[in-house]
Amino acid sequence: MDVQPSLIGGEWRAPESACKSFRAVDPSTGEAIGPAFPVNSALELEAALASASAVADELAAAPVARIAAFLDAYAHAIENDAATLVALAHAETALPGETRLAGVELPRTCRQLRLAAQAARDYSWTHPVIDTGGGLRSHYAPLHKPVLIFGPNNFPFAFNAVAGSDFASAIAARNPVIAKAHPSHPATSQRLAQLAHRALQHAQLPSAAVQLLYQFDSALGLQLAGDARLGAIGFTGSRHGGLALKAAADRAGIPAYMEMSSVNPVFMLPGALAERGEQLAQEFFASCTMGSGQFCTNPGLLVVPDGAAGDAFVGNALTLFAGAAPGVLFSRGVLEQLDASVTALRDWGAVCLTGASSAGLGYRYRPTLLQVSARAFLKNPRELQREAFGPTSLLVRARDTEEMLAVAASFEGNLTGTLYSANDGTDDAALAPLARALRPKVGRLIMNRMPTGVAVSPAMNHGGPYPSTSQAGFTAVGMPAAVRRFAALHCYDHVTDTLLPAELRDRNPANIARLVDGHWRDDDLATAGSATA
Amino acid sequence: MDVQPSLIGGEWRAPESACKSFRAVDPSTGEAIGPAFPVNSALELEAALASASAVADELAAAPVARIAAFLDAYAHAIENDAATLVALAHAETALPGETRLAGVELPRTCRQLRLAAQAARDYSWTHPVIDTGGGLRSHYAPLHKPVLIFGPNNFPFAFNAVAGSDFASAIAARNPVIAKAHPSHPATSQRLAQLAHRALQHAQLPSAAVQLLYQFDSALGLQLAGDARLGAIGFTGSRHGGLALKAAADRAGIPAYMEMSSVNPVFMLPGALAERGEQLAQEFFASCTMGSGQFCTNPGLLVVPDGAAGDAFVGNALTLFAGAAPGVLFSRGVLEQLDASVTALRDWGAVCLTGASSAGLGYRYRPTLLQVSARAFLKNPRELQREAFGPTSLLVRARDTEEMLAVAASFEGNLTGTLYSANDGTDDAALAPLARALRPKVGRLIMNRMPTGVAVSPAMNHGGPYPSTSQAGFTAVGMPAAVRRFAALHCYDHVTDTLLPAELRDRNPANIARLVDGHWRDDDLATAGSATA
Q: Which of A482, B114, B370, B449 is deepest in the core (most CB within 10 A)?
């Protein structure tokens, strides 16, 4: 069988003869599907990096209208190709075609690309600051170096290395992208890259601005991640893989934005359970098993009070979990990792209420509930907050608010933390101290809804303290903030107006918001040229 | 002689018996001066970290008025104590008392503290973003962990670990600070810490919010820098020390903002030299020898064209450098390092025009000019852009613009890059390509002035690409941007108004600028409560 080409240096490049290759697998059957894709060689990685570096300055200097045109055209092409893309992604991931891929994720992906186009066009990510008296002007600017993006297994569109939020952010900041597809969905990634490649040509941008690699040996990956020609790295995936790449990048001084792992603790306060426990069990079950629980923000740890309302909630959840069909996981690796995590949690004292085993054809795993007392949890908090990626949650049963606070204090960094409280105010006394304890541990503090909804909003933070991500000051979702990860701060000191970037010139190119002498304004500078005389 | 106490856990703590100690040295004589200061022990470091961690939540929750009151009171106390502080700093650093310490650096330090107070009070560093429809609100928030700050030798006030820009920034973001004084000016640092300690009490802030250590063994320093209880590290100093601390911090996922080294290239275009070469030689000489050249932004590398105007410029500069008195360096270590760097540059082919030797009492070094052809530079660009910290510059003689461009392309990351061009437009053809080549290599691009002036402005970037700093997206000078280094991004998702931080509530607490649904506004939310209903 022919091995598919990679997108390198602006062309679809045939694989080297005798290259290693791999095929996608239908997770619902465990059978290999589709064509063979190459394991990329050191020469191919070098060619990708060299050609991306060669166009970095050109891309940085490209008119923003072209950058925006590319992102818009790409979004449009994805919509036009939706049926094919959804079929490919469904086959490679077993995610529901209509309700998830076509109905939610593909539109979200296109929306992200268009918001990135908007951010490129309106310069909002550049945060222009002008000090007219001091003759100083600064903004966020392109890195002038390629961004290497590693996509995760769990969003074949919305976090795809060649179409997702990291991709859109890096391109909006006018940086070339070297996309490393997740090997669990190579055909989906290839199809997206084909559309991106054509959209680049349509927008008259350098065709080496977007490249696609499928897979490489981890030693080569670490070498690439530590190559000083890179401007930054975006990664979504496992903690193990993320930390190894981060270490390589750190040694070379390359900013690495890694989204790694999170158990996303949820606190169910007693009043909320008394008031609407049955409904909350439903919410919890739906959130934890959607997409077979393979979300970064899956509610993997629930703190539930002892007592009748807590017991009833657990009973309701148990009924739902036990009655549900096994969830299909993305790969044998995910299945094995989940099984290892569940086993480890049990070894550390968690009791299995239901599930905890694989089931049937392909990579299926039963929805799983584990339970442990807060007292036992607090003896081994590190081991018991291990992420179990899949339709799995650990219930931590707390005697009182004090124990809940102690559990909150024991958490490492997480993407999200959630508090459910009674509408009638019953829980209010416990709420404030719990919110205070949870706040510094999480990127997003949520009330009365499950963490799995990550809205694409300028006020979103899809990020959190280490080790949920590598940089607690940045979000991976939400424009324009996500763009700023792939930017450098540039200052101009008494530089002639004609040599300034558009958004810092006296004449405001598009009524963009600029912080001028301490005030946000969108007009031209009144004293044209005064600061650069 | 008694060994001085350290400020640990809110108290001046006597040194351990039999602790190692050291004394400051008058750099103009090489004689030890003042009392003995302790080399801090592992127990003391642990006590500092534990007590700072214990007050981190309290400080994060402190009213901003108290934070601002502390910073203002501290600035006021420094001004009142100016005579003593200047005398101490002059004795320990040999920097000129009137023209530098009293006239420039002390006022600048107080101004920074007051601008930090203003940033704390007006929440400008928190960058509030509100999405009313989505129920999402986000801002930059305190780290809820201590910040460890390493001060440099070259600014006993303005970058002092217990009074400078890093300190002011970390406190403005409501984080406790563990200050590691530079051991070349322990008495100055102690005096500042005494004032800070009293100002904390005056402002009713936890007294463990500011701590002072003087010195510790490097193994202990690396252990501290890698302790996960830390929220961040600020460092100004050598590349060697900075990279070692960064590696320790990286392994623990601690953000480390290191300002390390920079040669700050300056390009003298032919027209500028023909027009005002003699004046430029004066400017260059003054900038390069001021403070004995011990500035992060010292012009350490000048690209000068071949030909008559270039030769005349070099001749004029040579006369000034050769006729100037030796500069006093801060320490034997600085002297030895400078001598080693100058020797290395000569070994790689640079020719000494003047200087390149120590001179007389104390740590004196002759103002030094080295020269090399661009052609030779381009053969060993890495070795020839080695920083020589002191009154020293390397002249790189270029045949034409092409050679200048090649030299610019060979630079690693620098804090600044400067272009001098003719007023009459003669240089304009060369200017644009040179500016383009230099731009991605530097944090601040400057025209027609020396880089040593680092204005405290919101549009300043005192930062630059690796390895001049560790994070090209952040500045160490300029409020409120410098504050954001010591902050985490926090999002609130449908959180009740009363549980929100002040600057994200419906009612705008102080008419602060907030990005509400895409527009900057400073009023209350019209639909009070709608997003949190």
A: A482
